[in-house]
Amino acid sequence: MPVIDCDPAAARERLEAAGVAVGDGNTDHERWRAESDGAVAVAYDDKVVIQGGDPTRLTGLIREGGGRGHVYFDGASRGNPGPAAVGWAIVTSDGVVADGNETLGRTTNNQAEYEALVRALEAARDYGLSEADVRGDSQLVVKQVRGEWNVNEPRLRERRVRARELLEGFDRWSLEHVPREINDRADELANEALDDA
Fold first, then answer.
1. Where does the UniProt annotation place the signal sequence (predicted)?
2. What is the mean pLDDT of the chain?
3. Which letter, b or e, does each residue of 105-138 get, where b requires 16 or more Cβ atoms within 10 Å of its Cβ?
């Protein structure tokens, strides 16, 4: 549950500018409330508390934006193709500030890895990062997105284009291959999604 120290009036303006409906608070202590993507932001005198399933977008809008984070991604497929899922995590100096997972249906492992990268980058964008150090344990995805290896499969080529578009939205970014042990949170999340499906 993110707690953001901020000026609630300025945070409200940022939310309204992004098209999020902001209403009255439910008690005398609440200045306002806003809902988006299954999360609720509640403003008090000098802070905003965000609750709910996916606080990423509201948190990114309420923070003034910017900042640097490490973005971890992983896709998993049981069978190739088979049931697949993605997991991602965003880590800043405050620790793990956002994470998520989702099943994809039936797809290949490479398609799941690409989808995980895209979802992680969208989350980092929504969180408001200006600098993203992106890490994943798929050497194929990392080298293809960086342009070191060719992409022959049309669906992967399409996801590569989307990943590059998202990366170019950051002021600075890096994309590196890391061992699975370093990518364990994203890996856990992807496998949890498959286990729960």
1. none
2. 91
3. eebbbbbbbbbbbbbbbbbbbbbbbeebbbbbbb
